[in-house]
Design brief:
heterodimer, A: mainly beta, 1 helix, B: alpha+beta, 5-stranded antiparallel sheet, 4-stranded antiparallel sheet, 11 helices, 9 strands, about 20% strand, globular, disordered N terminus
């Protein structure tokens, strides 16, 4: 069983700052006598600031993935924030085709990529998900979980789409190991080679009509790439490192499935298992040659309310967004302790506040805050 | 030359029926005929808005309780067919706003009635008819049908696509707009029907929208369907200087637009079921005003100044960063102001999917706000004000713009002239 400390609301921003300072000073004498306890990253977060609308000219909505550019390439500047849209202008899920690019310096939003709705190599077409990464070589790889009518009743298996630095399609990755690549990618990028971890949420998933059951057939796929000079990444190896995760079609939110992926020390991959309301750990993530199943449970329930995308704070803690309220939860993966939660989307238009509003999350380059999206407002927000 | 349609030779006019009614009531006492005459004058004075003048009616007119808007597509082949229709409309509009039938009623019952008579006996109820020209009058599908393309005013731009727009073609645009406003819904609908009849062969209805306001005591701001007072910070229509600065087109416009204005319509569907389940305090945070008093948050009275700089003890703005009235405030938009003259609408229920979590689906009210605003130039009016609101207004999670249009309302009509005559005379 895991514990948690407290919940801070957005209204307590100032109080949180004072609390953080008090906690910091309180730790100083302690540090001289014993090993320092892991500080809370969220305790140092004071305020949320809306940065931009994420809606491009074609009206796409429902921002999902957030990736901070590791390099400047083509039209992208280093530290730009790339965001996918999952819905089209009619707000149908699984039909969004755009990636927007927010430049934190100029505060300008541009459209990095507008993909064709139908891509022959991508079964079902294009509906861009939370699965996205940008490599140091400038290639962007993004997942598609497409639908024809905004529900999983008409879903396709989708694919991973490789884009060049100008947002043009350079290739696709589609095979029987890929079915609705869904969650935020974890990436190890060595330049000439890269390793991607991708969660799938489409195996065995059908129509959301009626009362569809949870299908425990979802996987986490490791994809090793080679990136020859000037050429698109090529798949060298694909291995299923996690399996048996649940997915459930849903009329409102399309599908509930494994969403967050984050790498930790000791070659551990953490997975947020939405239907299981838990975070699990897959060991030997880069080297294993067979599935670890759903892995070892790190933490479950408590502050977690259907965990979604996940990232790692500088203190090594996991930050995971909740689907069923507007909170981000900080978890110490070493102990499994749920450190605290912060209400980063307290929008009372949903009950509980912020429910259904959060999805993607990514650390700022300086590690002093994080970006997240508000799906109800179609905005990119900085918490710092 | 005697008028062939002189009232003495025709059936009853709406006014004569009113006078007759007055006469019947008055006949119980002495001096019946004199009282009837005076009552007729009294009814007209209270219930009639002037049609001819420097400006079209229905803009700087104290807002009536009901509205019926219709957008027409022109199908006229020639410019003469258009001007013929506009002449007929002008004559009919002048008569109807004066409480007359659209055309004099004849005695020949074997022919089509010159007026459908659905408002016969009714007061004009302060009827105004406000006409606007859409882009399609000047150029349609790349064709200059009426040799007017060069006359299109610069300010009559194509409205940009705003964030969140879900505009339906069947409820958007049009070549000519007519908005009838009156204190009687049957009078507004009658007026539109009669104009539609007169346009047969020259124009056809593209879309229409009825609207209503609550019967609010004079001087009080009406509430919208969300339960909030709507229109508190409007420019004062009784202040000519303000109107000249903000609403009426001046020397910068073509002569036929001087004294006119540009009108933007937006059919805004409101997720009332969702809104009704919100806590009042959150509704107030979203709007930026107190629900019951109409006062801005942080103030006491409805008409107290909106203090956007005020913060609470924790340094958070009292009026939230994305509150509706903050984003609409002139101070946030480079001083841009518009005259709002919208109406609530209620078209029953239909199946819909809300656009926000929890993405509720089902039969919901197709009701909301038929937003109407007038301005001197939409580029510095609605477009400027709404661009930011479309992206960040907290209210956006309850409202969807599903139709609308932009029209150039020519200046007022002189007696003997017809609507927009200067545009056609010089074309």
């Amino acid at each position: 069983m895991t514990g948690h400390r407290d919940i801070f609301s957005r209204d307590c921003g100032r109080a949180t700052l004072l609390g953080a300072l008090a906690a910091f000073t309180a730790l100083l004498p302690q540090a001289a006598t014993s090993a320092p306890q892991p500080a809370s990253f969220l305790e140092g977060i004071h305020r949320q600031t809306t940065l931009t609308s994420t809606v491009p000219d074609n009206g796409d909505q429902n921002p999902y993935a957030i990736v901070v550019a590791p390099v400047s390439a083509g039209s992208i500047q280093k530290d730009d924030v790339l965001v996918t849209n999952f819905n089209n202008a009619g707000n149908l899920q699984g039909l969004g085709t755009t990636i927007v690019d927010f430049n934190p310096t100029t505060k300008k939003l541009s459209t990095f990529a507008t993909l064709p709705r139908d891509l022959p190599q991508c079964p079902g077409g294009v509906g861009l998900t939370t699965a996205m990464t940008m490599l140091k070589t400038g290639w962007v790889i993004v997942g598609s979980a497409p639908s024809a009518d905004g529900t999983t009743a008409t879903k396709g298996a989708g694919c991973l789409i490789v884009l060049d630095q100008n947002g043009k399609v350079a290739g696709t990755i589609a095979n029987d190991k890929i079915n609705m690549p869904w969650g935020n990618m974890a990436t190890i990028d060595d330049g000439q080679t890269a390793t991607l971890f991708v969660s799938n949420a489409g195996f065995g998933v059908g129509s959301p009509e009626g009362d569809p059951r949870v299908v425990n057939a979802e996987t986490v796929l490791r994809i090793k790439l080679s990136i020859p000079d000037g050429k698109p990444p090529a798949v060298v190896d694909e291995t299923i490192v996690g399996s048996g995760f649940g997915a459930q079609p849903n009329k409102d939110v399309f599908v509930i499935g494994p969403t967050g992926l984050a790498l930790g020390p000791n070659d551990t991959l953490y997975v947020s298992d939405a239907t299981g309301n838990r975070i699990t750990a897959i060991w030997d993530a880069t080297t294993r040659d067979h599935s670890a199943g759903v892995g070892r449970t790190v933490t479950k329930d408590g502050l977690l309310q259907r965990p979604l995308a996940m990232t790692t704070a500088p203190n090594g803690h996991l930050l995971v967004t909740n689907a069923q309220n507007g909170q981000v939860v900080e978890v110490d993966p070493a102990s499994g302790e749920q450190i605290r939660a912060r209400w980063i989307d307290p929008n009372k238009a949903q009950k509980p506040p912020g429910s259904g509003d959060l999805f993607g999350i990514a650390m700022t380059p300086a590690g002093d805050g994080f970006y997240y999206v508000e799906d109800e407002a179609n905005t990119l927000v900085l918490a710092r | 030359m005697s008028c062939p349609f002189a009232p003495a030779r025709t059936g009853p006019s709406r006014r004569s029926l009113l006078a007759g009614a007055g006469g019947l009531l008055a006949s119980a006492g002495v001096g019946a005929s004199a009282r009837a005459a005076s009552q007729e004058v009294a009814v007209d004075a209270a219930a009639r808005e002037m049609f001819f003048g420097e400006h079209q009616g229905g803009i700087a007119t104290s807002q009536q309780a009901n509205s019926y808007f219709v957008a027409f597509d022109l199908v006229a082949k020639t410019r003469d067919e258009v001007t013929t229709m506009l002449r007929l409309w002008t004559d009919a509009a002048a008569r109807m706003t004066a409480g007359e039938t659209a055309s004099p009623l004849g005695q020949d019952l074997s022919t089509e009635g010159p007026d459908g008579a659905s408002a016969l006996g009714l007061s004009p109820a302060r009827l105004t008819l406000t006409f606007g020209f859409g882009a399609g009058l000047f150029m349609k599908d790349g064709v200059d049908r009426y040799r007017l393309a060069a006359k299109r005013p610069e300010a009559l731009v194509d409205l940009p696509k705003f964030n969140g727009d879900q505009l339906q073609p069947a409820r958007t645009g049009g070549d000519i707009s007519v908005q009838a406003c009156a204190d009687d819904p049957q009078v507004t609908f009658h007026a539109v029907r009669e104009l539609d009849r007169l346009s047969y062969g020259a124009a056809q209805i593209r879309w229409a929208q009825s609207g209503f306001l609550p019967r609010t005591p004079p001087g009080e701001t009406p509430r919208n369907l969300m339960g909030f007072k709507d229109g508190t910070n409007n420019p004062r229509i009784s202040d000519p200087a303000t109107m000249n600065k903000i609403i009426w087109v001046g020397a910068e416009g073509p002569d036929w637009m001087r004294g006119g204005s540009y009108v933007v319509f937006r059919r805004i569907r409101i997720a009332l079921e969702h809104w009704d389940r919100m806590k009042v305090a959150f509704q107030e945070e979203t709007v930026g005003r107190k629900k019951y008093s109409g006062a801005p948050l942080g103030a006491e009275g409805e008409f107290d100044p909106v203090d956007l700089d005020r913060t609470d003890a924790e340094d958070n703005p009292v009026i939230a960063e994305n509150a509706h009235i903050r984003l609409a405030a002139a101070a946030q938009n480079g001083g841009a102001r518009i005259l709002r003259r919208g109406y609530s609408y209620n078209d029953g229920v239909n199946f819909t999917t809300e656009r926000w979590p929890p993405w509720r689906q089902g039969m919901e009210y197709d009701a909301g706000l038929f937003f109407v605003c007038y301005q001197r130039d939409p580029r510095t009016g609605f477009i400027k004000v709404f661009d930011k609101m479309a992206k960040f207004d907290m209210l956006n999670q309850f409202v969807t713009h599903v139709g609308g249009g932009l029209f150039a309302c020519p200046g007022g009509i002189a007696e003997g002239a017809f609507l927009g005559q200067a545009l056609f005379d010089r074309a």
